User: Fold Probable RNA-directed DNA polymerase from transposon X-element from Eumeta variegata.
Amino acid sequence: MTYACSVFTHAAPNIIKKLQKIQNKFCRQATDAHWCAKNSVLHGDLELPTINKFMEDASKRFFDMVQSHPNPLIASAATYEPPPIYHFLRRPRNILLDPPDTLTSEVEKLSEAKSMRKE
Assistant:
């Protein structure tokens, strides 16, 4: 589902939501969770990142690695000036600047709360 995700992270949000729905269904089936269990709780308990979070992390790793690549063409593809805010085209690196979606932010809040309880 996430093969080469750093390339297609700029896809339309409804496409990413479809991937997230598939992941949520797999989580629910794998844990045999009841229909009323929240997706954020499932992701938190499984310690599984959401699709957006996974794509963002993979993109960070990819762009960090590419910037130090010995081939100057590859390195120049990773470093570019971001387009103006009003520009309609999105590029793969834009995922690093976007705010997290609601499910990702809920999962992060739950994981922070769990870590605070452990301490």
User: Anything to note?
Assistant: The chain is about 55% helix and 0% strand. The radius of gyration is 17 Å. The chain has a mean pLDDT of 82.
